[in-house]
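Example record used in the benchmark description.
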Amino acid sequence: MSDAKTYKVKRITGNMSKWREDASAAVIDCFPWSAMGAVDYRPKTCAYVATDGSRLFIYMETDESELRTETKGFGFVHTDSCMEFYLLPDLKNPRYLNWEFNPAGAMYLSVGTERKNREIAARENYQELFLVQTRVHDTGWNLEFSIPLSFLRLFCPSIDFSEGRIMRGNFYKCGDNTVRPHYGCWSPISLLQPDFHCPDFFGTIQL
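Model output (structure tokens):
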């Protein structure tokens, strides 16, 4: 799509604890369906991604207030306050994965080529596998997790995290059943109804 965005992933070569300091921000500032809600709510939300060659590290933050955290553990979290990362790792393989989290660290993850007929992925021990951390504070909440290359190779055996590799994906902010329902994305989506399962609108993620 002509409006699709490009994100350059930071390559970590030194201090892991400070990788976000000069990483590019993927700003979730497209709210295609804001007119559908009673209130046009657009929480300021950003995502940052880096790699050390063995994992993708993702950090997301939002100034969302009045949080909803009904789901616990593994389950549907899109009805709660939610931040999401969809990734199509291999351009030769149409399957993509959707990581979705609420402020309590609950997660949903599946794999497939479209919204329907998706398979659950990593239900057990997901917090240890993806090193999930969330924090709620006075001005919003933030999320940190990482994706092992070895995990992605279960679905895309030939991929690596070499410099220059191109993947596709999108970052999302939503909250279907929150006080102020909202649907935000990084790479724009041109559909009449809210739908994040639309790989045709994924942006480019360059390692």
